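Hey,
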Amino acid sequence: MKRIACLLLLILLLPATAPAAESLDALRSEIQSFLKSPASEFAPDTGERAQALLGSAMLAQQHHNETELKSSIEAASQALANARQLAERFRKKYADLLSLRQAAREAAGISGDPKLKDAEVAFHKMIAAVEEGQLNDSAQLSSRAAAGYNSVINAALPHLLERTSDAISRAAAAGARYYAPQTYEKAKAWFARTQAYVDGVGKQRPVHPRLGLKLAQYAREIALQVKQFRRDRGSHEKLMLDAKADRLRLADALGISYDHDDPQADVKVATLVDRIGELVSSLKQAKTDADKQAAELKAQYEKQLQERLQQQKEQLTAANQKQVEDLKDAFQAKLKRETFESRRQTRVRKLFDKNDVKISANLDGSLLIRLTGLHFATGESSIDHKYYDLLSHLKQALEVYSDRDIRIEGHTDNKGDAKLNQKLSLKRAEAVRDFLIAAGVPGNRLKALGYGEVRPIASNDYAKGRAMNRRIDVVIQAPHG
């Protein structure tokens, strides 16, 4: 009784499952979003596999195959999760190389440095090696890319120093040492450190090769703007009025009152910051209150659920005696059926050599005959003559179960295009079906299905696992009724 109550509790608490068709739209959006994101560069093949499996799911939806649709959605979701995980691991593991790459791109600018192109080729080969788990190759390619990026930066620095020196001179001519002293001095300090590095005196190379040039140009812009302010007597007033107008707009948005008719009305920045702090605290308190209310509602729901379970338990107790009697009768009938079924399975097992098939009984009453001794040439669906004896024994096994329908399932590994794999698996299943029909098995008992790569029984990361996934499964279906 306790077990029944627990099952009822789980059923009541489990959320409703969304239809597979609805989840397909959400998955399509997620995959497209990933493929358009910068992260997709670090897991390109896995992202494309997710896209291919999505195509298989869409095909299943068009054919109204709910089982295949659900299976393909699960496979595509897993591929997308793998792509995201690969990209995140890559960014963490190669953070230094990515920073170096960015610096090299910044140093090269739009010049199209051939060394940068060579480094980029090594970088993308490294991505492919990492994705395929080739650790030695990825380490070598990482070193090659890093050497290329370093070479690009070192080659670009003398030219950047010349441009920076010129920009500093132009900033000085504009009066930057007087009107933009902080930015101007930062530019000069960057120039001095970088010049020392190029001359072999300093050991610290700039992290951002164009920073000095940008600082010098910005110092000149500030100096020119300040001189413009000095010539335009109303410019300082405009700056003050614009800044005050911004503060007053923030005050309005934050609900801070002031005299709108007073031209001197103003709100201090500290007041704005305090108000924002109050709002943040208010939001946190609102969240705390909402969490508390949710906990109270959950407690009420659990109490009501316990009361309902108690009522159901009493009802089940009242009906328990009758169920026990019914179970006794059902057990006797089941025992007779299982004895008969056990004998049939024994007859089937004796038909095959142990290396030709793997036979297992399923909980739903069906029987799986996995043709481990049947193999196809790569990309082919024709059956070699040497397997005719095995299929003849299969025909005899199906005669033992002449009262059952048969499902012939084709499966492949994950190498190649997902759609082509699905078509190939179907052709192989149809080849087995056609042989059995030619051997005398009624065609209306046989159904051929191709699942492609979406139902693996072993890891596709290894040759042995891929070999296990390339298979034909013959399912003697459970009896009707």
